[in-house]
Amino acid sequence: MARTAAALVIGNEILSGKVQDANTATLARELRALGVELTRVVVIPDEVSLIAAEVNALRHAHDLVFTSGGVGPTHDDVTVEGIARALGRRVVRSPEVEALLREHYGARCTEGHLRMADVVEGTELYSGADPRWPTMVLGNIFVLPGVPEIYRYKLEGLRPRLRGADAPFVLRSVYTALDEGEIKPAIDAVVARFDDVSVGSYPRWRDPEYAVRVTFDGRDGARVREAADAFAALLPAGAVIRSE
Amino acid sequence: MARTAAALVIGNEILSGKVQDANTATLARELRALGVELTRVVVIPDEVSLIAAEVNALRHAHDLVFTSGGVGPTHDDVTVEGIARALGRRVVRSPEVEALLREHYGARCTEGHLRMADVVEGTELYSGADPRWPTMVLGNIFVLPGVPEIYRYKLEGLRPRLRGADAPFVLRSVYTALDEGEIKPAIDAVVARFDDVSVGSYPRWRDPEYAVRVTFDGRDGARVREAADAFAALLPAGAVIRSE
User: Fold this and answer.
1) How far apart are CA A213 and CA A236, in angstroms?
2) ipTM
């Protein structure tokens, strides 16, 4: 049974529309390459009790949980406290993280900066390629920051840790000139024939290039390609703009 | 008590990273202007039982629920069926929507297109400014499509329906040259003094323009401006790059 994952996005900035979440797409793509299926994303405000409840719901229902946001030094950074409450543990200062922060900030280092050394008791600090910025891990919970560039950097650092026996997903796309109503019979035929390939259909609005992108996903690359080819072959001449 | 809303994003394309969700940011901004607080977003796969369970959880916990995606004619469009199951109702063909579809597609109209006329029994068809594309409404559930341009268009059409007595949110931002650890005392002072203003702090990664954006949100515009000004006044000279 392949692993599943959930993302918990902690951020008033997403819920108030100040910022558009980019981390979920980063996570989804990274996990597909590792053969892990992202099956749930939840976005909640920066509130300790909500974080605690959601962490507990997600960590029991999924193999892996990735939190995003709420790990800086300011008053609205309450992810560590939320996870501590979920696990029934205390928040303690990590001497290891404190040393890293003091080294990084030097003479500028404030008590504000050092607040980032507060971790859930029992936190594992996982250093991928870059020991300066270890990631907090609590069992199957991976605690990542909200800033997209750092999120991506730390997630890539987790690759050796996340790699398992799951076959990566393979994706093929066919772009059509016809609309969904018109290609539906061809899609249905392929869906019926390839139960190991997941077929998606994504229409565009007034796109001069194509009308619908039809995607074929699965862990067996040969079957995925076969399904995409079968679909294209069922369409009338000229209906396929391109495949990739 | 101001209204709260939840978004239910139905889409394998988001969970597999093929598409980055843009509709949540659109919804969040629209709701802020209407004085409604978006407090939860959930992204789930195109599966009837998951949709049904989630719709039921969200519609009882929030004043308004907005679904996004899964309303086209293809096999992966199962939102209507999911909502029907949540409400314990049947799916029926709407003569009104069927007539609109036949008019739009003309001679090209297929049974595939007409599948979009299948609605949950008892669905209200709300036409905003544009009666050609009514929105399906079921009590406090608003059913919107996944395609971002159409999502935005239909959401704007719902404005008269969604407008209430809630005071809209006002936002001010102060962009600083100092990092979060350095501005934390000033933020904490404002948080303590303005309990009716929500303060957020969003660092950038190697942005040449600024280090942190500090935001001030609330329903009382005068208080929001006062909080932003108080924060800026607490910073050393030259620390504020700009305010807006």
Assistant:
1) 16
2) 0.94
